[in-house]
Amino acid sequence: MEVKTINTFIQPNQSATFTQDYNRVALEIIGRNPLKGEVRISGAKNSALAILAGTLLCSQECRLTNVPTLKDVQFMGQVLSALGVKIEQNQDVWDIDPRQLKDAQAPYELVSQLRASFFVIGPILTRLGVAHVPLPGGCAIGSRPVDLHVRGLQAMGADVLIEHGVVNASVKGNKKRLQGANIFLDYPSVGATETIMMAATLAEGETIIQNAAQEPEIVDLANFCNSMGAKIKGAGTNTITIEGVKSLHSTDYAIIPDRIEAGTFLVAGAITHSPITLTAVNHEHLIPVIAKLEEIGVKVARESETSLKVLPGELRGTDIETSPHPGFPTDMQAQFMALLTVSEGNSLITETVFENRLRHVAELKRMGADIKVKGNCAMVRGIYRLSGAPVMATDLRASAALVIAALAADGTTIVQGLQHLDRGYENIEQKLRSLGAKINRIQYQS
Ligand code: EPU
Fold this sequence. Notes:
Layout: E1 3-5, E2 25-30, E3 38-40, H1 45-54, E4 62-65, H2 71-82, E5 86-90, E6 93-97, H3 108-111, H4 121-128, E7 130-134, H5 147-155, E8 158-163, E9 166-171, E10 182-184, H6 190-201, E11 206-210, H7 216-227, E12 231-233, E13 239-243, E14 251-254, H8 259-271, E15 277-279, H9 287-296, E16 299-304, E17 307-311, E18 320-321, H10 333-341, E19 346-350, H11 360-366, E20 370-374, E21 377-381, E22 390-392, H12 396-408, E23 412-416, H13 418-424, H14 428-434, E24 438-444
Parallel strand pairs: 3-15, 4-14, 10-11, 18-19, 22-23
Antiparallel strand pairs: 1-24, 2-23, 2-24, 4-6, 5-6, 7-9, 8-9, 11-13, 12-13, 15-17, 16-17, 19-21, 20-21
The chain binds uridine-diphosphate-2(N-acetylglucosaminyl) butyric acid (EPU).
Residues 46, 49, 116, 142, 144-149, 187, 189-192, 213, 215, 330-331, 353-354, 396-397, 424 line the site of uridine-diphosphate-2(N-acetylglucosaminyl) butyric acid (EPU).
GO biological process, one term: regulation of cell shape
Binding site for UDP-N-acetyl-alpha-D-glucosamine: 115, 144-148, 331, 353
EC number: 2.5.1.7
């Protein structure tokens, strides 16, 4: 097959769907080049998605900064526009005018492409008293139900009817606002915590969420809402208290750094034995990731308040079990698996958050990795070196894992399925190239 290097980044907003335009595009990575230098980490995808949904709560204009340029974020922007919100984008700065939020109906074509767009249900319902949002459906990593979101809204006095694939929610009876409630989540779901927290900001009375998710993105969303006048306490712990207010005001808010992008670059440094520096990071958000790297034999030094340096070392195997924050993040499991394939000894990886998040195993095995899967566990036996091969990304973090594996592999790896990578990594190939990686986006010719 003939390949042609095109070397240009496909802008995330150039295609209408995730699958279009990607059939013949791949990354060509020539492995075993040491990396060096500095890389700046972008704003957090998962914060940006929740906070964009959160702008619907506000009846004045808002400015967001440090918004990453990603396909998922562009899609969320399209969902908001379809609801009547005006958005002006200038690089990482988004000026958002949600005053004209008029439509309580989120469009299926958009929600079906981006699961996080279901998160608009809380803000729309609490602001307009009614919301119609299509069920997002499953995705590559699991069935991903929204029952906890729905039960939370019901506890706050919403009537919810799921019909023809759409969740129709309305404030019950003659009450104009949702009512504060005590809500215990069966599982500390990130999305359900965000939905309930947003809905509660404009509800009447106090809402308490117990067994809430504690991820840094929850804290970021709470800080954003509080900057608009919401009264949220306890975000970042397992109990969040929200005192409802009547309306929220304008804000200018900067999104936190992406801890998963940062973790991905730390692992890239570790696997290539390269002392790279990450800037614009928050150390606190990376504690579980840095702890595992240190167990594996890689030190991570704090260079300043907002920068970290990888101090590479001999890699040795370890065990990893994913769990909600402050546990080891499921969004770093695939990248660590890539690292452990070339770490001496045996490692056991247990995925507990999503039921189908080991699909990258088959692709890593194509590169020579020695991995056996049983249920939600993967046993990795460290080998001396991976070898480049054509591989297919199966989801966002799997695509990052394959890129990381390719950086350390002998020869050339061709990574396809880039529609996943572009959802969540801003300019990853430019960033890696600036560190010295041999990586190019290529287009296949038939
Ligand atoms: N769950 C339910 N019912 C619900 C909600 C969740 O059973 O109503 C289950 C899910 O099926 C899953 C588990 O709970 O098994 C965790 O799901 P959670 O709701 O915590 O995840 P999410 O909100 O759907 C966010 C991130 C994910 C990240 C998870 C866990 C966004 C947009 N997505 O998803 O990010 O893996 O939290 O930390 O915030 C990624 O960036 O690659 C990614 C998948």
